Amino acid sequence: MPDLAALAERIKTWSRELGFQQLGVAGIELGEDAAHLRRWLDEGLHGRMEYMARHGDLRARPEELVPGTLRVLSVRMDYGTGDDAAAWDTLAEGERAYVARYALGRDYHKVMRNKLQKLADRIAGEIGPFGYRAFVDSAPVLERALARDAGLGWIGKHTCLINRDAGSWFFLGEILTDLPLPVDAPASAHCGTCTRCITVCPTGAIVAPYRVDARRCISYLTIELKEAIPEELRPLMGNRIFGCDDCQLACPWNKFAVKHAQPDFQPRHGLDAAGLAELFAWDEATFLQRTEGSAIRRTGHAGWLRNIAVALGNAPTTPGVLAALASRREDPDPMVREHVAWALSRHPKA
C-alpha cells in the first residue's frame, strides 16, 4: 500500500496540472444532507424532476452507487468571466438575450469528464489498478455536500457552493474511489446574515435560506421544464432565456472570483451579446449546429423558442420585437404558438 497522505498530495498536484483549480478528499457519510434532501423532495420542491425523487436515497449513499467506495475526490474548475458588470448590463438591455455564464462555451460535462479520466489514469499509472468511477452531473451524487466535506467551499443560502478565495463561479466533478485516502477538513460557512441572493431572485425561488423551490427557479423553467411556463412567472423572467445567474451575481463573495483560463469555456457564436430577435430566427438545423457540444442543447429547439418568446414578451415594444414574434405566430409547435400569443398580448401595438 502506498503512502496515502503523500499520494493525496500528488493527486492534488496532478489535478492542478490538468486544469482543475482545487481537489479535496471527502468521506462518504452524508446523514444530515440525506435528511435535508428527503424533506425537500417530500415537499415537492423538485417540480417535474422525477429523477430527483427516483434516486433520492441513492444520492446520499456513494457506497451503494459504486460498491467499494471509501472516499470521494471532489474537484473544482472555474468558469467565471471576471466581468459581472457585463452580465448585469445584458440583463438591463431588454432586447438582448441572457444565457447563464456556464452555458456560453463548450459543455463543461465533456471537458471535465475527460480531465477526470486523465487524472484517474495518472493515479493508476502511479499505484496500479484501483477501483473508481468519475462523474460530472452524470449520476445521483450529492456533489455540493461532498465538495463541502472535501473543503472546497460551503453551501450558500442560494444552495450553490461558495469558496472564500474563488466565489461560486465554478463547476464540480467527482471520482468515487476505494482508495482509503486521508480526508480533508470540511469548509466552514461564511454567509453570516447576508441575504442578497434571496432578495435578488427574480421569481422568489429561494423560499428560505438553503431552500430553493425549483418550480419557481428560472434555471428549472428554462431548462428542466418541458411544458408551458406558468403564466404568472413569465413577466418575472425578463430576458433570461437559458438559466439564471442573479443569485451568484449578487453574492459579495464573487468579488474574489478569478477569470477562468479554460479556452473551452469562452463564449461561442456571440451568445454573450446576442439579440433576442436574432436567436428567435434560428430554425432547428441552425439551433442544432450552433449548440453542438453545448449545454444549451438540453432545452431542445422548441424549448429554446418558448424561452425566447417569453423574453420577447418582456422586451420593449419595438418594430424588431414585434416582427420577430409575428414571424412565429403560426409556428408548428403548439407550445411555441401559445407563448408567442402571450408575448404579443404584452405589446400594445401588436
CA-atom Rg in angstroms: 21 Å
Query: Hey, roughly how much beta strand do the residues contain?
Result: 5-15%
* Broad shape: elongated
Structural class estimated from helices and strands: alpha+beta
Topology order in helix (H) and strand (E) letters: HEHHHEHEHEHEEEHEEHEHHHHHH
Strand order within the widest sheet? 1-2-7-4
Portion in helices: 25-40%
Distance between the termini: 73 Å
Mean pLDDT: 94
- Overall number of strands: 10
**What are the low-pLDDT stretches, counting only 5+ consecutive residues below 50?**
none
Taking the sheet with the most strands, its summary is:
4 strands, antiparallel
Number of helices: 15
Binding site for tRNA: 226
EC number: 1.17.99.6
GO molecular function: 4 iron, 4 sulfur cluster binding; cobalamin binding; epoxyqueuosine reductase activity; metal ion binding
Subcellular location: Cytoplasm
